[in-house]
């Protein structure tokens, strides 16, 4: 009888360990999926930021060109 009880305990422990292992694997997959999503989102935000910075640089260059042209026009008017 004791052997049967011990065997039942061992079987219960084994089943519990299998359940824990499965839960661990599911949790690891979820974490991996979340990590991938976050990394993809970070990359998308980095691209957006770079595009915005490029747009601002181009805008600054355009503003400098306009300022230079305005100065040239003022000089031309004075002549």
Automatic annotation (TrEMBL):
Keywords from the UniProt entry: Coiled coil
Name of the molecule in the record: Kinesin family member 14
Lineage: Eukaryota, Metazoa, Chordata, Craniata, Vertebrata
Organism in which the protein naturally occurs: Nothobranchius rachovii
The gene coding this protein: KIF14
Coiled-coil spans in chain: 10-62
